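FW: tagging you since you asked about this chain on Friday. Here's the raw sequence from the shared folder, copied in full. Didn't touch anything.
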Amino acid sequence: MKRDPKGDVNSRHRRDEHRRWHFEYNPVSLDDIKPFQIIGTRERSMISAIIVAASISDGHPAWLSHCGQVMADGRTVSEAVFPTHAYTPIEAFLHKYSTRNSRLTIMQLREGIYQTEEIRIKAQRECQLYHESLDSMQYQVSGLLPMLLTSILRNSNPFLKRGAWKAIPQEKEKEIYICSGEIDYGWSWLQRKINHDIFPSTLSLKIPSPQDVYNSDDTQYVAGTRKVYDR
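HL: got it, structure written out here
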């Protein structure tokens, strides 16, 4: 694969936990985008830099700092962007990726997570309804800073370890508005149904980070940027 001549978000070799790795920038087209997939991005911004810095506290530097939910139409992404929730055309993400102004990774829930076709249909319907309910949502206070402070405290204190997962209470689903939190909440019906945490959190006590969404054993890479370890 051709190496990107720009230095930052490209395929230069680096060392991570004594292993060499690089970023692959695989092509992404509209045909790759399917309903209910998840997009992850990393732009050159202060917010991205803060998220990446906070993630170092658990020893896993993030290379994704934002995520959004592809809606049922397969062309619109529901995303938390301050100060008002947005429904962004997927073409906007593809354009930034084509100009190398952003990393872009397409993910989907792994095969078998739904267990039955009936559960899949219901889970996707509940996900769609949740994201539709966010229309015109005004974000008064960002949940990002509390999440990052919790991360530093949690990961620097050996007594604050991850405990057993508890189902997301429905009445709590709209209390914290973070992009990855909305991904998590969108699939909360499914998680309650199968009694399983799809997106285990490493940063906050219960809200996953964008990198957590990608790193989950229950998500699969589809297209776009990915981190590849050399042999």
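FW: Confidence is low (pLDDT under 50) at residues 1-15, 160-176.
HL: agreed, and Helices lie at 46-55, 90-98, 117-132, 144-156, 179-186, 188-194, 210-215.
FW: great, closing this out.
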